[in-house]
Amino acid sequence: MTARTDGRRGVTILGSTGSIGTNTVSLIEADPAAYRVEALVGNSNLTLLAEQARRLRPALVVTADADKGQELARLLDGSGLRVAAGDDAVVEAANMPADWVMAAIVGAAGLAPTVAALRRGATVGLANKECLVCAGQLMMAEVGKGGGRLLPVDSEHSAIFQVFDFEQRDRVEKIILTASGGPFRAFAAADMAAITPEQAIKHPKWSMGAKISVDSATMMNKGLELIEAHHLFDMPEDRIDIVVHPQSVIHSLVAYIDGSVLAQLGSPDMRTPIAYALGWPKRINAPVERLDLAKIASLTFEAPDPERFPALRLAREALRAGGNAPTILNAANEVAVQAFRDRRIGFLGIAEVVEAALNERVPRPLASIDDVLAEDKAARVAAAAIVAKKGR
Ligand code: NAD
Ligand code: MG
User: Fold this and answer.
1) Where are the domains of the chain?
2) Residue 2: pLDDT above 50?
3) Which residues have beta carbons under 5 A from ligand 2 (an ion)?
4) Which one of 62, 118, 326, 387 is least enclosed by Cβ atoms within 10 Å?
């Protein structure tokens, strides 16, 4: 396959219909002379996917849902665009010759296409933290082997990437991830059992997809980000701190051996870290609200509460344990979050399911991406059984 060469940069968006995906599309559409879209991948929102495809005219449009190919083809009738459906088609989309790929599928479902893009040497903007959490070193090894590049899109990791002195990594003392604390930061422990999916999905600072919103509410999101930071920046678990910063203005910090602490600040708007990855190594314009520090007036910080947010402990333990533990943590969390959204378990049940799955699965090392996919599958089966036993 050869790239269509017209001077524009070829881009592919995996998960184009989601929160990160639509923000990415908006930045690309703001500068049509700069980008040519190779492939768009969505899942169930076919109307939006078809609208995006008619505007951006990618060489390939894919729905991950194998049963929806005909419906998507119908929506794109007369457009002349090539349409495909199913998991293999998602990987085919990642293999299209785009030199920049946004990985914005939610969950471990994004692992295979993200790895495919890395294997052919693409530059990947990584929003899809779950795939790095579940495949860890094995995925980082694909970056090395394929000659591609992984650019963080998660706001905390983008912040660290911007202030991390890679030439003097031995002079970095620690990295500090900031956390908004989510919607239940100030909730009493006694009130947490009754939290509903509607309450959990309404984040105070960020507008995001449903799954990551629930992860922010349990603080599992920060646990996943701890593991993500460990792999992206090759930092040991005990040198990654987490601090709650409710204003979400400082997106994360790096502390150096001379006592200096460097931070990146910005409005809580994902278009900034997406733009950073899209333009890298050049900065590009992002139409986000500019910071007005006098108006913000005060920035506050507090330690996270491990009692009310056990997910943080589980993630640290899984990272320390290594092997299949982070894969299980992620898979069980995905299953538990879905069960909570379907009202099959309560809010506190999410961390309980994850902990039970970690206790139940036998620890083992993972040798390949296929091995990761097998463990992910087995851990989902185990977590689903735990959910079924629990009920409400
Ligand atoms: P979302 O739910 O809004 O969008 C998910 C996208 O993935 C959609 O396009 C959907 O069609 C697609 N998708 C879902 N299941 C799929 C499957 N099985 N195969 C292929 N595609 C599938 O989620 P989001 O909030 O945009 O988050 C996407 C990723 O980015 C997540 O990993 C999340 O943790 C991460 N992230 C999001 C934010 C944010 O502000 N939204 C911030 C940091 C990181
Ligand atoms: Mg984040």
Assistant:
1) 9-152, 154-304, 322-392
2) no
3) 154-156
4) 387
